Amino acid sequence: MKIAVCVKQVPDATVHKRLDASTGRLDRSGESALNPTDVNAVEEALRLRDAHGGEVVVVSLGPEKAMESLRKALAMGGDRAVLVSDAAAAGSDLVATSYALAKALEREEADLVLFGQQASDGDGAVLWAAVADRLRRPMVSQVAELTLEGETLTGKRQTEFGYDVISAPLPAVVAVSDAINQPRYPSLKGIMGAKSKPQEVVSLADLGVEADRVGESGSRTTVRSSSPPPAKSDQVRIEDDGNAPEQIVEYLAGKRLV
Amino acid sequence: MTMLVYLETHDGALTKPGLGVLSKAATLGGDVAGVVLGSGVRDAASGAGAYGASTVYVVDNEALASPLPQARVDALAAVVRESGADTVVFPASVLTADVAAGLSARLDAGLNWDLTDLRLEGDELVGIRPALGDTVLVEVGWTTTPRLALIRSGTFDPVESGGTAEVKDVTATFEEFSIRAQLVDHLQEESSGPSIEDADVIVAGGRGLGGPEGFSLCEELAGALGGAVAATRAVVDAGWYPYSTQVGQTGKTVSPKLYIALGISGAIQHKVGMQGSGTIVAINKDPNAPIFDFADLGVVGDLTQIAPKLTELLRARR
Lengths: 258, 318
Hints:
- The complex is a heterodimer of chains A (258) and B (318).
- With 258 residues, chain A is an alpha/beta fold.
- Helix content of chain A is 30%, strand content 29%.
- Chain A has one domain (2-218): 3-Layer(aba) Sandwich (Rossmann fold), CATH 3.40.50.620.
- Chain A has 8 helices and 13 strands.
- In chain A, helix 2 packs across helix 5.
- The model of chain A has no long low-confidence stretch (mean pLDDT 92).
- By secondary structure, chain B is an alpha/beta fold.
- Chain B folds into 2 domains: 2-179, 3-Layer(aba) Sandwich (Rossmann fold); 201-317, TPP-binding domain (Rossmann fold), CATH 3.40.50.1220.
- The longest helix of chain B is centred in the first third of the chain and has 15 residues, at 69-83.
- The chains are: A alpha/beta (258), B alpha/beta (318).
- Chains A and B meet through helix 3, helix 4, strand 7, strand 8 and strand 9 of A and helix 3, helix 4, strand 7, strand 9 and strand 10 of B.
């Protein structure tokens, strides 16, 4: 079985994230990391491969330095990395990103495409649904438990109304929740071995992606401006000297909340 | 401008988040219509008139019986064609996020998500999105139509305006790949009491409760206020309380009238799920906890002393 895991490089959690005032885009110049919840998707792919055999290919769209993050997935146990890297793709929104990524995935013809729960930089948690529509494949998202029997996968997921158990035939697209597993740490042997695993950088032209379908020209949304949020006013602070419960009741009564 | 508002149903009734977004859309001016997709949902659909929809488009089809997104992309694409709408607005949920993104790819239509406000500047639609852990407010726009928008859950409350809506049936055909995923089982939440998303009052607990037994303080206080109990990511991961009660970036987003946080530090992950609450009261022994930055009433003290006494005082008022 061939499993493709879509991952993203994001600013490291310790970096103070800021928008570049001239472009309205996230400043990505600092330390980077593999998006934390994508690590769960890599882990799930490795578990499925170890149980059913096959290959795990890690796929990403980003600047060339994103290969560092793909190597982390290889160090965990991934077999191969494909990075779609092209200056023309910078600033791509959902429409453009899903188009380019779907083209890269079409080339791989994986039985299963996995995504993580959410990008920690743009808070995006929808890309899989757009990619699945372009690939014309069944899709299940927010999966907290995933099983595979023959050519049918079954996922359990939490919604606002309880838990749904959903099945779909392969080939399919699945987005996993970060509750699905506890990812392994790469071993020293894994880290050393990652360097010699296949790492391919492909351009948009390699994938047959027209330049006007990506980047700003291929995007349908814009960032107009940004500003700091308004500060909260009327905050009350008390130190408990034994009367806090009474003070809380008084405060709530004043706001007609009790 | 013709704006469609995606309305979700549950147990045969329109749910609050969609009606809240519809109420907001009705204040923007322009033609506002609802969309209801499901099986046996036609009766519920007409109720949208009271919240500002002039028309409700309904696709009532057995293929939409399960709460799965892909068949809804097919149906919604048909409604967009039929109505000529230039904008589709969704209340964000597990289901609608996937429907919106699928439609975005299908129509090559721009999607902005996590919006907390919408306004019109002439014909131009502008969305407001808190980004980077809500440290910045971004104004976003669309360069083409149709424009798709996901509204952060709990942002707008339903406001009844008392109108009526004409129900129009739309026929959809379904892609073969859209109906391959199937719902095989549905398990109800095991938690008792009101669902946290509908609760007017929430009492939430974090690591500061000290252990799973600490949640009895939350349950008793919630009982005295007629509210529901919620938990942070940290304590859900530790197995102290069920996942279904988790509030935050990877849990639920809630906006009760009153949110009482017991022993919660206020990490950004938690904040994004509850900052829309009307009034936030935080009790924490650490005076430097980030939650005090955005709590309306911050109480520095020992929650094991304060919470039981507070419960007692509130019970006495009932």
